[in-house]
Amino acid sequence: MDIPPLAGKIAVLSLGALPLSFALNYVSLLSYPLGVVLMSSLILGLFSLAIYSLSRSDIYYDPLYAVFAVFAFTSVVDLLIALQEDGYMAGFMAFYTKEGEPYLRTAHGVFICYWDGIVHYLLYLAMTGAIRKRKSYRNLGLYWLGSFIMSILVFLPGNILGKYSSEIRPTFFLTVPFVLVPCWAGLRVFSQTQVPTCCTPNTVEEAQRKGLLRRPVDLALIIYLIFAAFFTLFRGLVVLDCPMDACFVYIYQYEPYLRDPVSYPKVQMLVNMFYVLPFYGLAIYALIFPGCSWLPDWALVFAGAIGQAQFSHMGASMHLRTPFTYRVPEDAWTSFFLCNLLYALGPHLLAFRCLWRPAFFLRPPPGPPANHEKQH
Question: Where do the EXPERA domain residues begin and end (predicted)?
Fold first, then answer.
């Protein structure tokens, strides 16, 4: 996959969040929730106008340029929040976490801010750079889409249903465009033309004639997906309080974070159970039967989703913001880390395999036309 150069202009503009957030931290108006939401809306509006005036031709070419540019700015803000909450800096975003979104001060909130401030930020710079160079960013966009949607699917219900439901402030409604805009962006990314492959009809036909035993990489991925599916189902049953001794042993010895009343881990496991588990079954089918052209795209989406989810889950499970009784015990760190790392790595290997040799998933070439006798 050709990774485009990062957009320097967007990087410079987004880094303006540093002095701006430092100055806003000392504005007395922002000591009230309503003041925070009004000021946040004003800043995002002014930043959008600045992007439009400076990059009008790029926005006309692809409106997602403006979306990614604004999201890059918010990613820098999220990174500042995470660094401040972990004590690496001070005097920047304290007003926002206090009066705007206090649930960002949880361990889960801190780690989704880290992911957004690092991984999403780099993706935004790469995708805006691709638009400026008039190159395709479809694969990067699919990975970002899965990651962003997973973050929203877990974070919003976790805020509404968890112990922070009584602390929802007016800034919560700013998440509405952050839900609607990615849906529109996702449709545009999916509608983009796929990058043509160099697979000839003969290559496709030869790849699709091979049985599973002659494709050891695919066989290994199927074995992995079967184990991952059982692991997903098991953790979902744990969250649902299934009366099984194995569930109780697992939750108390390896992942007590699943009992945390903040609700994020519970929502995360249920999302995995109802969305990721069916995908694993479909992916196994696509690795056995040729011509499932949908798998490469959806493998990228789910790789982004599971990468974001596992990063947040693993980090929050061991973070000091998580109460001691819900943290992973020190003697279980190795087992917990290896299991969850493998769970995150597998979908990325599946996506890489689909991009590396896509011939097996392409639609089979049409057969030779039937010979008809000439009619006299």
Answer: 61-186, 217-351
- Closest to 108 (Cα-Cα) out of 169, 73, 151, 75: 151
Residue whose pair of structure tokens reads 């649902």 in the numeric block: 240
Give the three-state DSSP class for 307.
helix
In the chain, the largest separation of any two C-alpha atoms, in whole Å, equals 94
User: Mind listing the pLDDT tens digit for each residue in 261-309?
Assistant: 778 888 888 899 999 999 999 999 999 999 899 999 999 999 999 999 9
How far apart CA 92 and CA 109 sit, in angstroms, is 17
**274-279 long-range CB contacts below 8 Å, 24 or more apart?**
275/153, 275/305, 276/232, 276/302, 276/305, 276/306, 277/229, 277/232, 277/233, 277/236
Rounded CA-CA distance 49/38 in Å is: 17
DSSP assignment of 36-75: HHHHHHHHHHHHHHHHHHHSHHHHHH-THHHHHHHHHHHH
Taking residues 192-211, report their average pLDDT. Answer: 83
How far is residue 40's CA from residue 173's CA, in Å, rounded to a whole number?
11
Contacts of 148 (CB under 8 A, 6+ apart): 120, 182, 304, 308
Query: What interhelical angle do 216-239 and 264-271 show, nearest 10?
Result: 140
Q: How far apart are CA 68 and CA 134, in angstroms?
A: 15
> With contact defined as beta carbons under 8 Å apart, do 228 and 346 qualify?
yes
